[in-house]
Amino acid sequence: MARHVIRPELSDAKGQGFHNIGEAAALAGVSAKMIRHYESIGLIPPASRTFANYRLYHDADVHRLRFIKRARNLGFSMKQIEQLLGLWSDPDRSSAEVKRLAQAHADELAARIAEMRAMQRTLQDLAAHCHGDARPECPILDDLAGEAPRQ
Questions:
Q1: How far apart are CA 27 and CA 63, in angstroms?
Q2: DSSP structure class, residue 146
Q3: Residue 48: helix, strand or coil by DSSP?
Q4: Distance spanning both ends of the chain, measured CA to CA
Q5: 2, 24, 74, 102: least CB-packed within 10 angstroms?
Q6: Global pTM?
Q7: Residue-wise pLDDT tens digits, 59-113
Q8: Cα–Cα distances in Å, from 6 out to 23, 49, 55, 56?
Q9: HSE-up of 3 (CA within 13 Å, CB side)?
Q10: How far apart are CA 104 and CA 120, in angstroms?
């Protein structure tokens, strides 16, 4: 037997505390496009729909979107955010698992920062050795090409 789903009019849904996608996006600080993306990859549950097929979001959905945005701002991957969301919604979670995920991400960021600092030092050194004038010799291009500096 098919399940009958009641689909309200948008005005009725708003009266019940629901938000359309534009309002949810504004409240969460994300774009409507990102909301649709998060829904398509399963980070947020499929939205309820109005009679006219507009998406509807409740305050809990907006709260979840804010969680995702904050996690993205901290550089967590989508897979890590999925894990964090699972832990967030699990009242029996272990904070040790949350800490492990956060510490692993912090360690990864530290390694990336160290790599970027090394790249910065290399580029500064190359730029310092480039005359930056009308001459064709350029240690930056030589380095990129894997050539020994020209004398």
A1: 9
A2: T
A3: strand
A4: 84
A5: 2
A6: 0.78
A7: 999 999 999 999 999 999 999 999 999 999 999 999 999 999 999 999 999 999 9
A8: 22, 9, 14, 13
A9: 2
A10: 24
- Contact by Cβ (8 Å): 74, 109: no
13/126 Cα distance (integer angstroms): 62
For residue 49, the SS3 value is strand
Query: How would DSSP label each residue in 50-79?
Result: -TT--EEB-HHHHHHHHHHHHHHHTT--HH
Least Cα distance to 88 among 108, 106, 70, 109 occurs for 70
Phi (first) and psi of residue 56, to 5 degrees: -125, 135
| Sequence-distant contacts of 108-117: CB under 8 A, at least 24 apart | 109/75
pLDDT of residue 17: 74
Mean pLDDT of the chain: 89
